[in-house]
Design goal:
The complex is a heterodimer of chains A (81) and B (172). Chain A is of the alpha+beta class and 81 residues long. Chain A folds into 2 domains: 1-41, Arc Repressor Mutant, subunit A (Orthogonal Bundle); 43-81. Chain A has helices at 2-5, 12-24, 43-80; strands at residues 28-33, 36-41. A two-stranded antiparallel sheet of chain A has the order 1-2. Chain A is elongated. Chain B is of the alpha+beta class and 172 residues long. Chain B has one domain (7-166): 2-Layer Sandwich (Alpha-D-Glucose-1,6-Bisphosphate, Chain A, domain 4), CATH 3.30.530.20. Chain B has an 8-stranded antiparallel sheet. The longest helix of chain B has 14 residues, at 136-149. Chain B is globular. Classes of the chains: A alpha+beta (81), B alpha+beta (172). Chains A and B meet through α3 of A and β1, β2, α1, α3 and α5 of B.
Chain lengths: 81, 172
């Protein structure tokens, strides 16, 4: 764990907290053996999370494009009346 | 003349939230109406090729919007948005949720809080939506649900969306 924390400008307890959050999301797994805790990246979960965020982005982007068209239509109708 | 409209999609992992910011070329009252009136919501809310169908809408604090996003072959994804606070035309907050056709919320799935705010940008409008989950575990449940429910696979048939899914999750 301390090896992993080394490149980060952060105290170890803070770093552990971040690792805890990642572990809670299932993005990483950690295992303690003796005094050493080792972290493993959960590639499958990480890929699923990335994909889901990408999909959420796509949903919002697409829905807002619909709203652009609707607003344009409503603005036009407004001008005509 | 087509002007570029601001679109930001950010993930704040520490706060278990998604932040969506988007500008619209319309005045605030009209953008607000489109978010709060059923007959207008039905015309834009579901991403293509899905359509929106409202079953119930009562836009007041304590009221809710019960709607489906329907695929071209008729499959419906039911959702419910429970309004908590409303400040016309500045913003509202609500609790989303997966439900059935009868409006019964699925208690096994997480509910996220939406904080939606509307601000003037010259004669245009900026809409900021923050979707908060209670915990990293809730985000994970939403991800698992997303993989199962098939909504995304409907969207993925669109080339346009495929491009977007390949894009990094950051501002454009």
């Amino acid at each position: 764990m301390s090896e992993l924390a080394e490149p980060f400008d952060m105290a170890l307890p803070s770093f552990m907290k971040h690792v805890g959050v990642l572990e809670g999301t299932g993005l990483i797994r950690s295992k303690k053996s003796g005094r050493i805790r080792t972290c493993t990246l959960e590639h499958k979960n990480l890929a699923a999370a990335e994909r889901w965020f990408g999909e959420q982005r796509a949903i919002w982007k697409n829905r807002y494009q619909n709203l652009d068209s609707l607003l344009e239509k409503l603005n036009r109708e407004d001008h005509e009346n | 003349m087509k002007t570029e409209l601001k679109f930001d999609f950010l993930v704040d992992k520490e706060k278990n939230s998604i932040i969506v910011k988007r500008e619209f070329a319309a005045r605030r009252q009209l953008v607000w109406d489109c978010h709060t009136k059923r007959e207008l919501l039905d015309r834009w809310f579901a991403p293509k090729p899905l359509t929106t169908k409202t079953k119930h809408m009562e836009f007041r604090e304590g009221g809710y919007w019960h709607y489906a996003m329907v695929t071209p072959d008729g499959q419906a994804f039911w959702n419910r948005l429970d309004y908590q606070t409303i400040n016309p035309i500045d913003g509202y907050s609500a609790l989303d949720g997966f439900c059935d056709e009868g409006g019964i919320i699925n208690p096994d799935l997480p509910r996220a809080r939406w904080d939606v705010s509307f601000t003037d940008v010259l004669e245009w409008t900026l809409v900021t939506t923050i979707v908060f989950y209670n915990s990293p575990e809730d985000v994970q449940k939403a991800i698992d649900m997303g993989l199962k429910d098939g909504l995304a696979s409907t969207l993925e048939r669109l080339d346009e969306l495929l491009d977007v899914i390949g894009a990094p999750v950051e501002s454009t």
